[in-house]
Target: Shikimate kinase
Amino acid sequence: MSGGNMKRIYLIGFMGCGKSAIGRRLSFLLKVPFYDMDKEIVRQTGMTIPEIFEKFGENHFRDLETEFLRNFQEEYCIISTGGGTTMRKINRRIMRETGLVLFLDAPFKEIWRRIHKDPNRPIVRRSTREEIEALFKSRYPYYKAAAHITVRTEFRSLRQITQYAAFQVIRLKGE
Ligand SMILES: Nc1ncnc2c1ncn2[C@@H]1O[C@H](COP(=O)(O)OP(=O)(O)O)[C@@H](O)[C@H]1O
Ligand SMILES: O=C(O)C1=C[C@@H](OP(=O)(O)O)[C@@H](O)[C@H](O)C1
Ligand SMILES: [Mg+2]
Model:
């Protein structure tokens, strides 16, 4: 496998694609520690994600994401990113240089079903379905380009996706 070292595993993709849920399960299966970037930011700031967006704005939240990636020290771990993390070039670079990047590719219809009622995602709260679909389409190429591996998740259970992701990780590390 060319480029980067393979110590960390980053899960990327749109809101609701399963990054947090798969990350936790993959961590059990591979026996490496799990970190959810959103949860780490909530813990470090003592504020919820909607509160950070309301009080300091989205740009500040983006800075906190980059700060997390720059400062995080743990070598062997699984990190679930937020849906917007992959949009910054510096974040893509850090992820690819420090680990293996897995894109969880889910269809928009399914994603919308999962996220549209969730009050903890401020971007969903303030937008229409059409706006979120446009965001999904605009972000898609960035996920594809940043990923070492794309995992198609449609019609697969969390358990099946976790097993498939683990298999791909082990295969690539062995190359
Ligand atoms: N393949 C799947 N099958 C069933 N439920 C899923 C699947 N992927 C994600 N979910 C569920 O969808 C919701 C959103 O997933 P989550 O892991 O929070 O997404 P993300 O962290 O990418 O925003 C959670 O309730 C999760 O359990
Ligand atoms: O897509 C985004 O811009 C965001 C995704 C969220 O994470 P999930 O992808 O885990 O929902 C969270 O970081 C924040 O609400 C912003
Ligand atoms: Mg998440």
About this structure: The chain has nine helices and five strands. The pocket of magnesium ion (ligand 3) is lined by residues 19-20, 38, 80 (CB under 6 Å). The beta strands are 8-12, 34-36, 78-80, 99-105, 149-152.
